[in-house]
Amino acid sequence: MQKLDQTTRTTAEVRENCHTPVVTFTPTGKQIVLLISVLAGFLTPFDGSAVNIALPAMGAEFHMDAISLSWIATAYLLAAALFLVPFGKIADIYGRKRIFLYGIAIFTFASFVMTMVPTTNMLITVRIIQGFGGAMIFGTSVAILTSVFSPGERGKALGIYITAVYLGLTVGPFLGGILTQYLGWRSIFFINVPIGFIVFILILWKLEGEWAECKGERFDLIGSVIYACALVAVMYGFSLVPDATGIVLIAGGIIIGIIFALYEMRIPVPVLDMRLLTKNRIFAFSNLAALINYSATFAVTFLLSLDLQFTKGFSPEQAGLILIIQPATMAVISPIAGRLSDRVDPQIVASVGMAGTAFGLFLLVFLTESTPLWFFLACLVVLGVGLGLFSSPNTNAIMSAVEKRYYGVASGMNGTVRLVGQMLSMGVAMMLLAYFIGPAEISPEYFPQFTMCLHYAFGIFAVLCILGIGASLMRGGRNGNRQIGKM
């Protein structure tokens, strides 16, 4: 369907205040913007994937059970998801460069504090602060990149950016395993500090201009609070299932989410313009496909890291070397898929990628305590190809489906569905761990139950990806968007 028509804005004042600053970038300037985005794109996924490898070591130091371990990853994701859409809108109003800069500073500072945390509660608290800074980064980096690069070169730029994301995912398990084994898990967070500092200096020194296409708009605080309550209720509920309280919280979160959608459709300047979803088919179904994809894949690394180190007896370094296969494959495929999506309908490339991901997850259902390593590696390669083919074409479709004034919100929405999907994925893992193992450390007596947990998890994730193929195909083609017209 067509891009959201600017003439449908409810107030003339909003339309007057929303303007596009003219910033001309030379080829060199564009490369500098790309470098900054690439470094930021590397930073946060590196942190997340490295932490997954370090979880057993962190759990051993603080004597944490399986559910508490999952909260180390989930707390960061939850905080990032809570603030991502609000910060995407704030960036459109006050400037994407400014919010991007603040996000880098907060994330870097929180990473430094993580090297000194003495207790489990403080560890999870600082992870929440990291997520807060991460939300500022997620909600602006893709928007800035999309603002600078024209549609004809955007797919290539996004492909390079997503390659950096996957490079962070690739290096994370390998370097995280080495650091954990030889220097301790705290050293993982120290690595973030110099990288964050370099990005901070580059933004101040080299990133010219500012992007605030909606300067003067009023920020929707009430909608942001309702949105946060919905996410917190759902995610905390997942950690309590199968207890009745958990089910009630999940149901309550869904109801609050519906209230949020209805409220956003009634106010003139919402934090999330629901017309982007109700009147823009490509944008809506591309985000739905992304939500399903991340819901089905994020917890895979978390679960396989535990399986390799607990059940199979690998060291953190060895587990990292094995898990590097999937993101390394993704890093090779993503730039190819990004360039392909500039010439071929992104719907086709992304749908093929979703099908490949479903097949890889189906293969993982057959893992046992005695599965040979070659089968394990083959599954990771198939998953990497599928995810590489899906991600950059789907991101290209999302960002190309809206006009410039919505880049911050669209980037925030894209990041939000990624984080919400990742949270739902961790929610499924938490729910299954709670059901099969409960509040206990993963020890040899629980290995059969843990393996059963893996079978159910990968089966659920494979079914989700099959549904995701349908969502990817339902978005409609690029040509259909042209027929209806652009703004």
First-last Cα distance:
12 Å
Number of helices: 18
| Structural classification | mainly alpha
Q: How would you name the CATH homologous superfamily of the largest domain?
A: MFS general substrate transporter like domains
Structure commentary:
The chain is mainly alpha-helical and 487 residues long. The protein folds into 2 domains: 26-209 and 271-484, Growth Hormone, Chain: A; 220-270. Helix content is 79%, strand content 0%. It has 18 helices and no strands. The chain starts with 11 loop residues before the first helix and ends with a helix. Mean pLDDT is 81; it is low at 1-22 and 479-487.
Write the layout of secondary structure elements.
Blueprint: H1 12-17, H2 27-62, H3 66-94, H4 96-114, H5 120-148, H6 151-182, H7 186-206, H8 221-240, H9 244-264, H10 275-278, H11 281-311, H12 316-323, H13 325-343, H14 346-364, H15 373-400, H16 407-436, H17 447-474, H18 478-484
Helix pairs in contact: 2-3, 2-5, 2-6, 2-7, 2-11, 3-4, 3-5, 3-8, 3-16, 4-5, 4-7, 5-16, 6-12, 6-13, 6-15, 8-9, 8-16, 11-12, 11-14, 11-15, 11-16, 11-17, 13-15, 14-15, 14-17, 16-17
Task: Please give a handful of descriptors for the protein shown.
single chain; 487 residues; mainly alpha; 2 domains; 18 helices; 79% helix; disordered C terminus
In short:
The protein has 18 helices and no strands. By secondary structure, the chain is mainly α.
